[in-house]
Design brief:
Radius of gyration: 18 Å
Number of helices: 6
Order of helices and strands: HHHHHH
Number of strands: 0
Helix content: over 70%
Number of domains: 1
Length: about 180
């Protein structure tokens, strides 16, 4: 089985969460389901476009490889190595998110502070661990390159969404 589909699924789910995070805390309304959904869809759209970069990188590697079957096998091994750390990270995020959504207010606030907040800060480390996993699992430098491009793409979603849709209006000051 190729790890490409589970990795793509994790990527688009992460992109939707990135869109939500770019918007989170910007609106004091209690009922903001529509705005949250719109923010998640914006992240999903940006992330889907950015995920084309690692796909193109992998395809170009396969098209230029001396032995495409061997290159495909190495990318598959690397993808499997990349998937394991991200699956562990995603599981921790989902458990924390479930606690946030299902527990009473005070406990859900604790889940946000203890779980979701720190996990957001750990995203770059999770991606670095995934890149290392791709290399150590026999993927070679090509899978490390594809993983690094994918990681850079995913880490770019939230800043791009924030910059495009949610940055504060600039005020003009007189000097």
């Amino acid at each position: 089985m190729t790890p490409a589909l589970p990795l793509a699924a994790l990527g688009v789910i992460d992109a939707a969460f990135s869109g939500f995070r770019a918007y989170a805390g910007r609106d004091a309304r209690i009922r903001k389901h529509r705005a949250n959904t719109r923010a998640a869809l914006r992240g999903l759209a940006v992330g889907t476009v950015l995920l084309l970069a690692p796909a193109v990188t992998a395809v170009l590697h396969l098209l230029t490889a001396a032995d495409p079957q061997r290159a495909y096998a190495a990318l598959t091994a690397g993808g499997s190595g990349y998937l394991l750390p991200l699956t562990l990270y995603a599981t921790a995020v989902l458990l924390s998110l479930a606690a946030y959504l299902l527990l009473p207010f005070r406990a859900s606030t604790l889940a946000m502070v203890v779980g979701l907040g720190p996990l957001t800060l750990l995203r770059p480390l999770a991606i670095a661990a995934a890149c290392l996993g791709a290399l150590l699992n026999g993927g070679g430098w090509a899978s490390l390159l594809v993983g690094a491009v994918a990681g850079a793409a995913m880490l770019s979603v939230e800043p791009l969404v924030h910059h495009h849709w949610y940055r504060p209006a600039h005020t003009v000051t007189e000097h």
